[in-house]
Amino acid sequence: MSVPDIISLEEAKIFLKLLSNMDGDQESQLSAILNGINAAIPVHCNRQLGSDSITEWRNGAGRKILQLKEYPATAVASVTHYDENESATTVALTDFWRDDDSGQLEMKPNAVHDTVWRKGSHNYKVVYMAGYSADDMPQDLKLAALTWVGIIWKRVEQNLLNVQSISFGGQTMSYRFEKIPAEVEQMLSRYVRPPYA
After folding, report:
1. Contacts of 108 (CB under 8 A, 6+ apart)
2. Contacting residues for 126 by C-beta, under 8 A, at least 6 apart
3. Is-above-0.70 flag for pTM?
4. How many Å apart are CA 88 and CA 120, to the nearest integer?
5. What does the alpha-carbon distance between residue 197 and residue 192 come to, in Å, rounded to a whole number?
6. Could you give the CA distance from residue 166 to residue 168 in angstroms, rounded to a whole number?
């Protein structure tokens, strides 16, 4: 199973109103832009956005909450605790609640394993599904990606992709291209994962 893109080629064509009048070269250009944006947004957000299987090692902190790196956490396949002797114990999936949106696992008060996630460095191995499926991709996330595509596509159409300034009739027009346009960055801000220790 491949990780779904934030936006598809067809969605970009509809957004740019290019469904019928696009040649093969233009479609290749648009595909390259999409590939770049679909890769750049998760890097900017510092998290996996498309649904995928994740295996990670987490530190137990002696607290009720174990924070997963990726979210939304849509399913947990297994959690294994490793003690100081590296003996493995499976934590029952019924021992904790899962908060999909935050990616937190909260130990239940009556859990068989313990009432907290035991302290240790990388002592919990968690295998889970995280991210959005193609059908569940948030609309504001898609809009951010489409807005970025539109900005770049306009530059391509006007042959301004690598132009810093244009002079004509004694006037100079300068262009400032950010890595991520400000309006796109603002739309993505709610998806940026805070840094973890």
Report:
1. 94, 95, 96, 97, 115
2. 54, 55, 56, 57, 58, 66, 68, 76, 78, 79, 80, 105
3. yes
4. 13
5. 16
6. 7
Pairing of strands 120-130, 52-60: antiparallel
Helices 9-16 and 139-157, interaxial angle, to 10°?
60
The residues of the chain scoring below 50 in pLDDT are 197
**Distances from the Cα of 70 to the Cα of 4, 92, 127, 133, 193, angstroms:** 15, 21, 11, 14, 9
Query: How far apart, in whole angstroms, are the C-alpha atoms of residue 26 and residue 153?
Result: 10
**Cα(94)–Cα(14) distance, rounded to whole angstroms?**
45
Render 16-27 in DSSP notation, one character per residue: HT-SSS--HHHH
pLDDT at 197: 40
pLDDT (0 to 100) of residue 2: 65
pLDDT digit string (tens) for 44-93? 999 989 999 999 999 999 999 999 999 999 999 999 999 999 999 999 99
pLDDT at 158: 75
Burial 124-136 (b: 16+ CB within 10 A, else e): bbbebbbbbeeee
Other C-beta atoms lying within 10 Å of the C-beta of residue 99: 16
Q: 64-80: string of b/e by CB count within 10 Å (b at 16+)?
A: bebbbbbbbbbebeebe
Q: What is the mean pLDDT of the chain?
A: 87
The total number of residues shown for the chain amounts to 197
